[in-house]
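Residues pack. One example:


***
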Amino acid sequence: MNPEKIAVGLDIGTTKIVAMIGRKNEYGKLEILGMGKAKSLGVHRGVVTNITQTIESIKLAIEEAENESDLAIKSVVVGIAGQHIRSLQHSDYIIRQNSDDVIEDKDIDNLIQNVHNLVMLPGEEIIHVLPQEYKVDGQAEIREPRGMYGSRLEANFHIVVGQISSIKNIGRCVKSSNLNVADITLEPLASAEAVLSQEEKEAGVVLVDIGGGTTDVAIFKDRIIRHTAVIPFGGNVITEDIKEGCSIIEKQAELLKIKFGSAWPGENKENEIVSIPGLRGREPKEISLKNLSKIIHARVVEIIEQVYLEIKNYGYDENKKKLIAGIVLTGGGSQLKHIKQLVEFVTGMDTRIGFPNEHLASESDDEFSSPAYATAVGLVLKGVSKNQTDEISVVDPNNSNHPQTFKQPSIPEPEPEAPKAEEKEEDINPDNTDKPEENEGPKNKKAGQQRKGFLENWADKFRNFLNDDL
């Protein structure tokens, strides 16, 4: 085993917590060494609401991943998401005193630091400061100002803000699970790493990650993230609607959604009926699939309309903001039947389902290619692609007296193509609700590796804050 390329991603979601261990093989593809998952009992809409339950769920997921991989996890790459995340636009500038010298990294860092000093609402803190375009002495539309001469350096920024208490609660849960935070990233950015190509980011694309508690939206144009949003509805709300509309328990509602649910009522006939076992010897309950689809359709349309509103707020109808690559759906909610067709119908934009299989080694289990694990795969990709100054700690349990900390090298671009995820049909089984059927995902070219910059530097500082102060 080549431990130098190992990374661990920890996806703390509303419905499940996933710990995934992976490494790059000789072809640059991601080999999953182990994965553990546990029901997320202490998280609501991406926010920790019960510290004790969240810690227990993290420990269960980590233990399962360790047993599967025969490795002991010491640090993880953690994703940040949730209803508390919001974004805003801001412009700022600095006046350079040394205008006879070319613009360098320190000048850009000074400009970004100015933005970090903005006063946010009480209890909020800036998570990411993402430059859009620069201006040098009034000259606009500059993507790369380094190496240029000028006295006034200006930029438009996309700022991601979150509640500091929510972020610290996640950090506390990780630390209390005997883990260190190796890195942190916004979960939509991790999902984008797993399912979007550089060509799509350049052409303009909307990533829609439909999770259990929330739906995350990230818009890319010219390979820069332009807009982010969190919609407080996800797959759990659909399940709740089915539960109330059909007068059944939650487990049965989730099973119905996965096995028979459709976002397009026209696909079902009036005489299509499914029988649900009665409770405690009661008579079975008959559910019309037509009615089931109508319940699902109503909620999914509401989610899509809110996504479309965010796209309109971005201003996609402007020539310079056109989203040529359309929409990419990922997350567990994207596996709902006919959701792709419904999104295209409501928005009028080309849509595809985003699978992380393009980055996975050919021998990887088909389960890892599911959109439900796109965020976890993206977090692992973030970990293995970090520079040598960043560490991911993994120890061999068979040699626990001599733990080692391995440095992460830069990863070359992959050459061979990975196989597509195959479409599978599953039997109706209440104990198998965590494995919904998957569609076949298209292949994309891998996004190019980015060099370490201000975002990673900020992550380093925040990681040290979590590791040292919590």
About this structure: The CA atoms of residues 214 and 232 lie 5 Å apart. The domain at 86-161 is CATH 3.30.1490.110 (Dna Ligase; domain 1). The two ends are 33 Å apart (CA to CA).
